[in-house]
Amino acid sequence: MDGLGATKNRLRNLLRYTNELLSFNEKITFDLAREPYPHFHEFQVAGLESVETTVDEETWLRIRRLRETRPPEADPIFAEWADFGPHWSADQPPQIATERVLNLPIEEVFDLAEAGLLPEPGDIMRPVGDDQAFPECMDVILRLDSLPEFKAELHRRAMVELGRN
């Protein structure tokens, strides 16, 4: 009789254990949203670079370490306007110059003046040390504020270069 009582007790414990296992599907046993740690839903990370989900039966999530890579070189048009610093970083936006001094042929200086891109008379200067009465080239101060289309394009491309669309 004792054997039958022990068997009943083991059977009862097995049924309770099975009932608990089945109840895991019905109730929340651990709520990640209430924990102080970051949490993500699978649909939020499934398409990200270096993230694999359901790799095999034993691995639910695999994340490969991302390596920092150097951003592409800036467009040559910005070479003298934007200072990206000694170490380019997406965390540090480029410093954009407000003005530049260029030594240009006199024909280009006239073209810039006619286009209204040299609003101040002092923006055109004779090169230092040039003693010619009619020099072939002149120093010109280009101010970013007098080039609104260029300024907008410069800012747009600089942010795109850093991946900040």
Which secondary structure elements does this structure contain, and how are they paired or packed?
Elements: H1 2-23, H2 42-45, E1 51-53, E2 61-63, E3 82-83, E4 95-96, E5 99-105, H3 106-114, E6 124-125, E7 137-143, H4 148-161
Antiparallel strand pairs: 1-2, 3-4, 5-7, 6-7
Q: Your description of this structure?
A:
With 165 residues, the chain is of the alpha+beta class. It has two domains: 2-63, no CATH class; 76-161, no CATH class. Helices cover 30% and strands 16% of the residues. The strands form three sheets. Strands 5-7-6 form a three-stranded antiparallel β-sheet. The N and C termini lie far apart (79 Å).
Key descriptive features of the protein:
165 residues, three-stranded antiparallel beta sheet, two-stranded antiparallel sheet, 4 helices, rod-shaped
Helix proportion range: 25-40%
Sheet with the most strands? 3 strands, antiparallel
Low-confidence stretches at least 5 residues in length (pLDDT < 50)?
none
Q: Assembly type of the shown chains?
A: single chain
End-to-end gap = 79 Å
H-E string: HHEEEEEHEEH
Rg estimate, integer Å: 35 Å
Number of helices: 4
Question: Helix- and strand-based class?
Answer: alpha+beta
Brief overview:
30% of the residues lie in helices and 16% in strands.
